[in-house]
Amino acid sequence: MATFLYRLGRWAFARRKLVTLLWVAVLAVCGVLAAKAPAAPDDGFAMPGTEAQQAFDLMNERFPGGHADGASARLVFVAPDGQKITAAPNQQAVQRTVAELAHAEQVTGAVDPFQAHAVSKDGTTAYATVSYSVKAGKLSDGATAALEQAAQHGRDAGLKVEVGGTALMAKPEAGGSSEAIGMALSAVVLVITFGSLVAAGLPLLTAVVGVGLGMSLITALGSTLGLSSTTGTLAMMLGLAVGIDYAVFIVSRYRAELAEGREPLEAAGRAVGTAGSAVVFAGLTVVIALAGLSVVGIPMLAKMGMAAAGTVVIAVLVALTLVPALLGFIGRRVLPRKVRKAAEGAARPTGDNGGARWARFVLRRPLAVLLGGVIALGVLAAPALDLNLGLPGDEAKPTSTTQRRAYDLLSDGFGPGFNGPLTVLVDAKGAPDPKAAASEVAKTVSGLPGVVTVTPPMFNKAGDTALVNAIPATGPSDAATKDLVHTIRGHAAGLKTATGATVLVSGTTAMNIDVSQKLSDALLPYLGVVVGLAVLLLLLVFRSVLVPLKAALGFLLSVAAALGAVVAVFQWGWLADLIGVQQTGPVMSMMPIFMIGVVFGLAMDYEVFLVTRIREGFVHGESPGEAIVTGFRHNARVVTAAAFIMIAVFAGFIGMSEPMIKMMGLGLAAAVAFDAFVVRMTIVPAVLALLGRRAWWLPRWLDRALPDVDVEGSKLHTAAPEPEPVREPVTV
């Protein structure tokens, strides 16, 4: 592989105008196709195989026009202090507001709270439910404006009015400012790392090209492949991350080759042949992690994973072709001015830098460093033992939002369960007496502990299906509510026998519970698939049994520590005020899956780039200890810079108001920090130092069976044309 990539790098460098024009042309064509493509579909958040989804589908079938998965709003009205909401002026104000909404755009129904008996026992609070014909993400601007205007009219009448539900579901905050900040911080880190504006700008430019091409393709193929508007979120984030990383790896190796006295053409070939090989296999590990999201069983996650994997493939191709082509235009200007002004043709002695000094420190105390790193990550991971997964709702939003204020008012007036009603669907199509069956279901559910009230059965036109709403005594994310859902489902078999009707529990609360359960069940299979395939790939890369196992175990430590940090902040409330967490609660169900997929890919990037340089030194005759020092001398600075860039990008999301995005920002930033600085820069050299030559042990039969991909570029000395005389660098 190294030989092929070496030739590819030389070709791209020599044909730089052609290569650059080809990339520009492809980007332009894809941009035009994206601009002309139909709007992306809304595939929603379907959960095939769950009871809640089965009930949603059945409701849409049996209650045509009911739009079971349509948006809804809940207006909460509170009378002024000392007054009742049932007082004539206040009641009239409420009814005018509800009547105004009943005729608004996309509204299918607005229920008068006084007719629906939706008034609190103390008479101070009432709520009105508004149903829409479309999903929350499809509400028109006119519909949301009408909702906000009606609420304001209620306030103008002297009432306190807040709006909950999904109708005002906040659209994801524009990431432009965060991405701009991340790019700016990345530029600063790259300038410090490379000491050259030209060298710092090149990875940013190529990353933008790769992300632009990837997002254009996702948009262009959206209607054909059923990719929703949210599919590209992960692709944009990871495409930018790995795009910068891979270009940095190639540019760094190119600079090292120039510093050793090689001409730019030869330096580009060797950079792509060596660092490019690491990029290929690092990219494959990321693709494995993202494609593995398909095993979770959630279509939206599978599409997000595949789209992001495609963007990573583009980032690899950009690094292998466009980066050396642009280096052909830049030449030696990629080096700092002081280095270029040094003696022409003389090799720059390679002395100890910070990376080499750190490696020597670890070599002197490998056991102490290893134990220190493992214990530190173990302590950080301890809170993860208390991990509670769920899908936080309005209760986790900032108190500055109307959704959170509506949640609190509803809880105060009616109890926390009113924020998470359960919809019990009674499929009595084969029952002897559908009405009797529905009544029996309502009676059974109302008698269960934890149920506050149950509404009378509401039948469809055919009279064979009924809906019963059950109000729990606890909030939507409370563990007792989850137990209640399972209890109702546990009675389904008995009710089927007694009445002949099938009972299904659905609603937003039940759907969230099912989503959390499905994600929890998929966690271990996903982890097994991703880690197992990556270990096999790393076995091929490093031709070692122990190094891939060490890489996987180190990754598990860093993810566990990051999850511990998330639990400590978002569940326990540690440092919550500092980062703006206003309400503790369960950790988002998708968090472990996302962290495993994203962080595993980035962690293996650092592992492959760092350890292949160590193995390169070992293969070329250095002792195990010398190879570790050589690898850290050349690549520790680059890995550190790449990690700082990723931490800065992810940490930018902590400042957003949406709790889920804030949680993802903290978790991913912490995971990258732990993995890069504790695992890769500390535990990895300590383990390699303790193992010595045994680190590279491979059974002979396996060595013969595995293809030789030559990631470290040992064949370049014979495959490459003889370059100009080069001085040997000073070695340790």
UniProtKB/TrEMBL annotation:
PROSITE patterns: SSD (PS50156). Pfam families: MMPL. SUPFAM superfamilies: Multidrug efflux transporter AcrB transmembrane domain (SSF82866). The chain crosses the membrane at residues 180-200, 207-227, 233-251, 272-301, 307-331, 367-385, 523-542, 554-575, 587-606, 638-656, 668-691. One of its GO terms (cellular component) is plasma membrane. It is found in: Cell membrane. The keyword GTP-binding does not apply. It is a multi-pass membrane protein. Residues 204-329 form the SSD domain. Keywords: Cell membrane, Membrane, Transmembrane, Transmembrane helix. Its main location: membrane. It comes from the Bacteria. Gene3D superfamilies: Multidrug efflux transporter AcrB transmembrane domain. Belongs to the resistance-nodulation-cell division (RND) (TC 2.A.6) family. MmpL subfamily. This is Membrane protein. It comes from Streptomyces rubellomurinus (strain ATCC 31215).
